[in-house]
TrEMBL record:
It is a multi-pass membrane protein. GO terms for biological process: phototransduction. PANTHER family: OPSIN. The chain crosses the membrane at residues 15-41, 53-73, 93-118, 130-148, 179-202, 236-259, 265-291. Residues 33-288 form the G-protein coupled receptors family 1 profile domain. It comes from the Eukaryota. Pfam families: 7tm_1. This is G-protein coupled receptors family 1 profile domain-containing protein. Residues 317-356 are annotated as: Disordered. GO terms for molecular function: G protein-coupled receptor activity; photoreceptor activity. One of its GO terms (cellular component) is membrane. It is found in: Membrane. InterPro entries: GPCR_opsins, GPCR_Rhodpsn, GPCR_Rhodpsn_7TM, Retinal_BS.
């Protein structure tokens, strides 16, 4: 049977070109952003922290996904899949492998941030060696789940628009249906649960530190921590938004196909979420580029177009100076409570020295996410009182 007859144009012809244009952006922007980001880590040794090893793994998965999206892009512009069955199986396997490792790595990054920020006394356990082992586990796990269809559990096939290939979500066979349910739970529900829990705990920890009143609200440390809280909220919000935006629509459609009749689902509703999921490969480098100035500066210096990189670097430096020169406004809530806050929280005894926490909120930055160091303890002279301020 002729390839065009098999397709029968199940979606409106203009939509083929719209989707193809969207994939063209992914194929063009994805490799550039991710490969340039990898070059930044390769050329800047000081950026290769344990956390950034996870980010490097994420970027590698994004590169793989954006490059293979070329197959689907060409098929959309031609309005049918002329690559053949073998390429179809390869595309489905490769995209699913990249997608799984992408999701797992996001969850690992969230857990890493939770340990470093919410459990700072355990942060020393997250070494580069631990990070490398975690990355290997992520990729082995993704490879395992993506390979099951090759051995009969699950199946890769053409999607209804016949312009790309993926897991056969609407199969009613026991083997394929059980695989679809298992992979949906393991690839979306569990990673999403880890991300929500970890970033919620991170945000609550930072908000508690910023508002606990262990420093003077007019001090430089307090202002930095209040700024850190806002920055952390923005980072978490955009990371979660990119995760949900990219993968939830595709998963909802997939579950719909599993529990219902796929014939009841319009073809364009199945096709568009698959393209949105492929776009996930461009969001991660953009988020880190936006939220981390240290990485952003190194990225500008690594850009192939030196003149553009220098202009962006100058613009960023000017904006940073303007931000630093503008004194931050004291929040209204803390302004009303300022009479109850003391510069230092002192603990004294009748016989021993007083211990005060002077720099609880010291801040460092790693890939746009702030982390809190263990409080710095300063020993003062003896005191005659036994009160706690």
């Amino acid at each position: 049977m002729n390839e065009v007859e098999v397709s029968k144009y199940p979606i409106p012809i203009p939509l083929y070109y719209v989707i193809g244009s969207g994939l063209l952006i992914v194929v063009t922007l994805g490799p550039f952003m991710n490969i340039t980001s990898l070059a930044v880590f390769a050329q800047n040794k000081h950026l290769r922290s344990p956390t950034n090893i996870f980010v490097i793994s994420l970027l590698l998965g994004d590169v793989g996904m954006s490059c293979v999206a070329l197959i689907s892009m060409v098929a959309h512009f031609n309005r049918y899949y002329f690559w053949g069955d073998r390429v179809c199986v390869f595309e489905g396997f490769w995209l699913y492998l990249m997608g799984l490792t992408n999701l797992y790595t996001h969850a690992v990054i969230a857990v890493d941030r939770y340990i470093v920020i919410a459990k700072p006394l355990s942060a020393h356990r997250v070494t580069k060696r631990v990070a490398v082992v975690a990355v290997l586990v992520v990729w082995i796990q993704g490879l395992l789940w993506a390979s099951f269809p090759h051995f009969g559990w699950g199946k890769y096939t053409y999607e209804p628009a016949r312009t790309s290939c993926a897991v056969e979500w609407d199969s009613k066979e026991i083997g394929s249906a059980s695989y679809n349910v298992a992979i949906t739970i393991w690839s979306l529900c569990i990673p999403l649960g880890l991300i929500v829990f970890s970033y919620y705990r991170v945000f609550m920890t930072i908000r508690h530190v910023a508002r606990s009143g262990i420093w003077d609200t007019s001090s430089r440390i307090a202002r930095k921590n209040l700024k850190m809280e806002k920055k952390m909220f923005k980072t978490i919000a955009y990371m979660l938004a990119s995760y949900l935006w990219s993968w939830t629509p595709y998963t909802v459609v997939s579950v719909w196909a599993i529990i219902g009749e796929s014939r009841d689902i319009p073809v364009y509703i199945i096709t568009i979420p698959a393209v949105v999921a492929k776009s996930s490969c461009i969001w991660d480098p953009l988020i880190y580029l936006w939220t981390n100035r240290q990485f952003r500066i190194a990225f500008y210096k690594t850009m192939p177009c030196k003149s553009l990189g220098e202009k962006l670097l100058q613009r960023d430096e000017l904006k940073h100076r303007e931000t630093e020169s503008s004194p931050p406004q004291e929040p209204q809530e803390l302004r009303h409570k300022s009479n109850r806050l003391t510069p230092l929280r002192q603990t004294t005894t009748k016989q021993g020295p007083a211990v005060s926490v002077s720099e609880y909120g010291q801040k460092t930055e790693t890939m746009g996410v702030s982390q809190i160091n263990v409080p710095h303890v300063v020993v003062q002279g003896p005191s005659k009182t036994g009160n706690v301020c």
